[in-house]
Structures are given as structure tokens and as C-alpha cells.
Amino acid sequence: MIGAILLAAMLASLSRSDAAWGSERTTRIEEPALPIREQIVGTWRLESIYEEDTRGEEINQFGVAPTGLFMADRHGNFSFQIMSIDGRRYAAKGLSSTSMGTAGIVEAMHYFGTYAVHERNHKLTLHVEYCLFRSCDNTDRTAELKIHEDTLELISAVDTLPAGASYSRTVWKRVCCK
Fold first, then answer.
1. CB 172 within 8 A of CB 45
2. Cβ(43)–Cβ(74) below 8 Å
3. Cβ atoms of 68 and 45 closer than 8 Å
4. What pTM was estimated for this model as a whole?
5. CA 157 to chain CA mean position, Å
6. pLDDT digit string, tens, across residues 52-84
């Protein structure tokens, strides 16, 4: 009985001393991070794009303020679209359906297929089944993959993309469906 009273007094004293020092006891349980292959699932809207040509010079192959969507499902399927807002004007005038009539400027880039995430080295491989540019059909595109909360970043350095870029960095914001 005396032991129980002493224990209760010690606990009460500890509580008061914590309060006197102004410390707060908070318990925070952090959720374990999901694997990247689960984080990538959803619909992402293009936030920004930066590309360089083979000389390391910046190019704006999609014109000013392009738009786009990247969608990935849980089964490993994806769809990727980037479109020049200016390109619709060219298409309406009956110009080329894949370019805006100016060398190095592309109206749109669309492709779909399957994807694989390489968790250890944070790489994403897109197996392109079909693409707006037939030369990309049945090819693989690999990019460095970074995800932080609702932002997805893809960085790729390839020999040359069909539209002319040799380096591409796209930033996407999640718009739907984790």
C-alpha cells in the first residue's frame, strides 16, 4: 500500500516538473513511406517543363505554357500527354498535325504503354507501346523519378527524344486518385 502511494506521488511530481519546465509531451506516429510504385499511381498535371538540345541550350519545343497529363494505374499501365496550347491554333489552320510548321517546335507528344519502377535507384521505365511518332513505338524511356508529397519529377537524359530534346525535366502535380 505504501509503495503504491509513493509511486503515485512520484508520478504526480514528474508531471508537475514537466509542466514547470514548459515541456510538452507529444506523441507523433509517422506513417511508413509507401513504395514508389504505389506513390506514382494517379493522375498528374504538368506543372513545368525544361528541355535542352544536344548542345546544352534550352529549347521550348512545346511553345509557351504547354499543358499535359501523366496517368499511372496500379496494374502498371500509363498514358503520357504534353500539348502546346499554341499548337491548337496551327491545327485549326490545317497545318501539320504533329508539328507547328516551325523546325524544333512540336504541337504534341502522346504515348502510352506499361511502366516499371526501380525502387533501389529511383528510376522509372516507360515501355512505349504506341506513340504519336511511330519511331517511338515499342521503345523504352527511362527517367530519374522523384516524388515528394503531391509533386512528381521526371528527369531524363536520352540520346534524343523524337521531338529533338536530349535532356528533359518535367514537374507534375497530383490532381487525382492516390
1. yes
2. no
3. yes
4. 0.70
5. 16
6. 888 888 888 888 889 999 999 999 999 999 998
